[in-house]
Give the backbone structure.
Amino acid sequence: MQAAFDRARQLVQETKGERRTRTNEGFQSTERSLPRLSSPFDIPWSQNISSYLGSHNPLAAPVDPKTESVWLFDNTAYRPIHPYPHAKQPWQAYVQAAFFKTGTGRDL
């Protein structure tokens, strides 16, 4: 069911150029050969709810580098703009990250 929804969403969102490239380069056969990912609803409800607690999550555990890998995305460091130019602002960072069980093809 999820796969059909994803395919329908992809068809609506892709441009003519993207559709032509996907067809010419054989993306469908490549995508069929990839492991089937689980649904986001496969995550236990307790982990799903607690994931919104951020650093206050009581179920949080360190990543085990032997069985999991971490990917970092779109890391940005910046200084906020202050309405008064004389006051320098401290640097802040915005980080997006995800971790995956190594070799499973499933996201957590």
